[in-house]
Amino acid sequence: MAELARGMRSREYSSEEVTRHFLERIESGNGRLNAFVTVTADRALQDARRADADIAAGRGGALTGVPVAHKDIFCTSGILTTCSSRMLSNFVAPYDATVVERLAAAGTVLLGKTNMDEFAMGSSNETSFYGPVRNPWDEARVPGGSSGGSAAAVAARLAPLATGTDTGGSIRQPAALTGLTGMKPTYGRVSRYGMVAFASSLDQAGVLAQTAEDAALVLEVMSGFDPRDSTSVDARVPAYSRELDAPVKGLKVGIIREFLGEGLEARTRDAVESALDAYRSLGAELVEVSLPALPLSVPTYYVVAPAECSSNLSRYDGVRFGHRCEDPKDLLDLYTRSRGEGFGAEVKRRIMTGTYVLSAGYYDAYYLKAQKVRSLINADFRQAFAQVDVLMGPTTPTPAFGIGEKVDDPVTMYLNDIYTIGANLAGLPAVSVPCGLVDGLPVGLQIIGPHFAESRLLAAAHAYQRETDWHRRAPQGWA
Amino acid sequence: MTLTRRDVENIAHLARLQVTEEELPVYVDSLSRILEFVEQLGSSETDAVQPMAHPLEEQVQRLRPDEVTEADRRELYQRNAPVVEAGLYLVPKVIE
Predict the structure, then answer these.
(1) Which of A81, A164, A187, A350 has the largest CB neighbor count within 10 A?
(2) How far apart are CA B90 and CA A432, in angstroms?
(3) pLDDT tens digits for A136-172?
(4) What ipTM does the predicted assembly reach?
(5) pTM reported for the whole predicted model
(6) What is the nearest CA distance from A301 to chain B, expressed in angstroms?
(7) Domains in chain A, ordered, with CATH?
(8) Which residues pair with A50 in a beta bridge?
């Protein structure tokens, strides 16, 4: 993408030409992958012509004219914003999310909206009302989730980059399973305004791209204070793309002991260990660290996230927007039937889990307990970062699994996020970097940093990408 | 924790969700499994631990002046409403 933007600025080709190229790829490839819910071709060409005029007038920036796909969780003014739910299948957003607004102001071109797990609840993109997304590396497998459409689109070169959101791993896990660089910034770094809420204390927007350099260029535009998000952090955003060359020599890397044990598939572990060796060769100092409370992150998450979800999703009542049932006989019938029809099975399961753990008599045993364990996990991270600069480990326990393989057992599905959830619970930035192929399927190395250490993570990822070419590999037939 | 049909019916009612007869046993099973799974939280000692309120401990909730900042965009917003009349959202009759 960075080269693409440079080519446009040096007038080797126009944004309109680049945009037409991607629109054609979407046209021919999306039928197989189901990565897009909405393609905004007219809008894309309009954006591209404006970008070309800006470049001609000498006003082109790092992202001017670059096509982008937004996860369909971000509100886009005048464009369908479905969250891949029947509930919002008729919802035309009346305003732009801050992320959308900032990327538009930077001159990007809107290609369309990508498929996702319904309301971002899922790890396989199989809970979408619009059907599962297929992994371009093997179309019988999932691309991961919940930002599965964004991941499949970038991996298959239908878009040079895409936005995503990460509540428990929804950027990093699909990035790992499709061979991409995916980053979730610190909680509060990117505005949540206009991003449909799932679990507000965990939700954070980020990016899926081919390289750490691309991710840096996008994140420095997306990030920053926004008074319209009450948890947005008012702190300076470094120019990530200018700090990519920070040396890895002397970097203290903590290897999380709890992440390399039981449950990690052997060849995924081999790929991660080779990546760790590469960091050792680059002069990083590797030490093993233990975060004893971390194995409790999945059960903690599956109390906290459903609790927040049940509260956030109470807004869908069939009255002001969204799906409404036919001929409601009274107000209760209107609520229960509109919600029963509008939400899919996994969303209903999470709303009910959340309702239960927040209900009288169970609140202390579940919700309060989970928030205390969350404190313990947070303290473990804090202690680890007193000794090391970054933490490393696998992003996922296995490469991509088959479509339909895990849908019947929610607990097995939830365990896909075993390595990613900790960063969300503690609000930490984390990036997944492609680090190998297992039977032709990509796997990822995860790098987690202390709050606001995005630059350090991106520089570490960039250093690895200068030594390796995993991030350059494209799925067969999609190069 | 094993839930009964009654439990799930009650939760669904609290959540204002219609759950069909066919869906009910599926939720009894999966919600029971989820609750059983999260019960491992009980294994950790947390008596002296404060519950976590915010991922960034030093972050303080901002206050803003109590001023109107939004323009009136009722018509635009109501374009997404299922039924409106004279600028009002319509629901089934609540008071006879």
Answers:
(1) A164
(2) 48
(3) 999 999 999 999 999 999 999 999 999 999 999 999 9
(4) 0.95
(5) 0.97
(6) 9
(7) 2-248 (3.90.1300.10)
(8) none
